[in-house]
Amino acid sequence: MKKTVFGMMLLIAGVSSSFACDICGCAANAFSVGMLPNSRHHFVGVRSTFRWFESQPAPDGHGYRGISSQFFSTTELYGRYKIGRRFQVMAFVPYVYNQKTDSVVTPVHGLGDVLAIGNFVFIDNMDSIGRVFRHSGTVGLGVKAPTGSFFKLGFDEVNMLPGTGSVDFIANVNYSVQYRKFGLQNETGFTYKTENKYKYRFGNALSISQVFFYRWDVSSDLKIIPQIGFNFMHNWKDRKNGQLSEDTFNGGNIYNAQINLFILYKYLGINAQVYIPLTQQLNQGLVSQKAMFRIGINYFFESKK
User: Fold this and answer.
1) Cβ contacts of residue 246 below 8 Å, gap of 6+?
2) Is the pLDDT of residue 200 over 60?
3) Which of 164, 178, 301, 302 holds its CA 20 to 30 A away from the CA of 103?
4) 189 phi and psi angles, rounded to 5 deg
5) 211, 193, 190, 210: which is closest to 202 by C-alpha?
6) CA distance from start to end of the chain
7) Tell me: the pLDDT tens digits for 84-99?
8) Residues with Cβ < 8 Å from 201, sequence gap 6 or more?
């Protein structure tokens, strides 16, 4: 049982977000569920993601740039329920708090867009101790509902709002291979965005994460799993009334170094992740990511299925 919980913990990572001017907000970024657990356990957890950006808009007629900073945070209640050996259902309920600082401080907060995703386990022999190589993999499809607010009277910075106002669709593939105490994990996620009733459509988003890990069995109850790797994110440009326009021009790429730490004690798991930007080209270089990190806690329940 403990080996099963550990195999599950190895695969709980998370990457979320794509970054650019109007798409560095919490609701509009590329969604990623992380390295999915493939075991006989349900789980419930809470995780928080924090990101900081700096924007340098083109100078006005007097050469003034009006540099501003943006802080985005999301705290999610999420969980997973097993349906037999091959199927999983996950749900995420986010609460968003965003803040922009320039000449004044502008906070925006509220319930975000709720998301559900179903996964098919196409391989899982992580519990087969006698195997030299062990594998785990899932493919998932999900939908995001427009439960978060996308309209605020007199407020036109759409990236700051808790929701997107649109129904979006997610495709996600997770795969892990382990050799003795070493392993390699990959996650690729794509988010397809639709137009909302205000004729605004956030750009589609792609996220790819590749990490190496090492398993340290401190005791029969305590496992520590450090990870290191790279993350790539790409966002397509937003559209307004079906057209690209100056105030919606954005999109771009970012490459991050990714450092994760997972601690599992019996049925309780704690994880922390840090993303360090290596190179980026966001909104023609007018936006830069300064920092991003995530911390979460999970509790696992035995499943009889």
Assistant:
1) none
2) yes
3) 164
4) -135, 140
5) 193
6) 14
7) 889 999 999 999 999 9
8) 166, 193, 194, 195, 238, 239, 240, 242
Residues 12, 34: Cα–Cα separation, whole Å: 6
Both structure tokens of 148: 């978060």
pLDDT exceeds 80 at position 18? no
Q: Which two tokens stand for residue 15?
A: 């990457």
CA atoms within 13 A on the CB side of 134: 21
Q: Which residues of 274-288 are buried (b: 16+ CB within 10 A; e: fewer)?
A: ebebeebebbeebbb
pLDDT value at position 83? 92
What is the DSSP code (8-state) at residue 204? P
Q: Are 212 and 176 in contact (CB under 8 A)?
A: no
* Cα torsion angle, 5, 7, 8, 12, sign: positive
Give the CA-trace dihedral at 219, 78, 19, 184, to 10 degrees: 30
Q: Which two tokens stand for residue 28?
A: 């509009």
Name beta bridge partners: 31. none
**What are 185's two structure tokens?**
């994990």
Number of H helices, E strands in the chain: 1, 16
For residue 141, what is the DSSP state?
A: E
User: Domains of the chain by range and CATH?
Assistant: 2-302 (2.40.128.130)
- pLDDT exceeds cutoff 90 at 23: no
Other beta carbons less than 10 A from residue 170's beta carbon: 21
Q: Which residues pair with 256 in a beta bridge?
A: 231, 277
**Spatial contact of 197 and 225, defined as CB atoms under 8 Å apart:** no
Distance between CA atoms of residues 255 and 60, nearest Å? 30
